[in-house]
Amino acid sequence: MEAMLAIVSVIASVDVSTAFSHSDDEWHKACPVIITETAIDGPTTPPIKAVAPRYPTKPHFMAEDVVVLAARIDQAGSVFDVRIEHTFVPEFVDGTLEAVRAWRYAPPMLKGKPACLEQDFAIEYRLDPCDPEKPTAGCAPFHPSYPGVR
To answer: Is the pTM for the entire model greater than 0.85?
Structure first.
């Protein structure tokens, strides 16, 4: 009997987003000076410590997507808050949020003074090509990647 492999197709009918866990008032109270960056190809200011997102471990799950998110980094360089702006694959939400919350940045500075950082960027989940005849012979069936972070 042939094993069946479920491949999730990205269809524009399911779009997932999440909210920040802190209010805008809490964010502005904690961070009076805020630098804003938007970079869809990866963080403009890369983290100095990055944790790779975990790929979902559901049996027979294989999918690709680009997860667009927003992160708020406090004056110490810790991730104050993060939210998913867009993904078509809900299974990528938990791993992405968990990883980015563990990232650490150099303390943001603006004109020599401590500041906070708001960043929009994307993390790409893509499938690496595998030899279907030898799926366990050193083949990595998935690889979360995010530019600027290794």
So the answer is: no
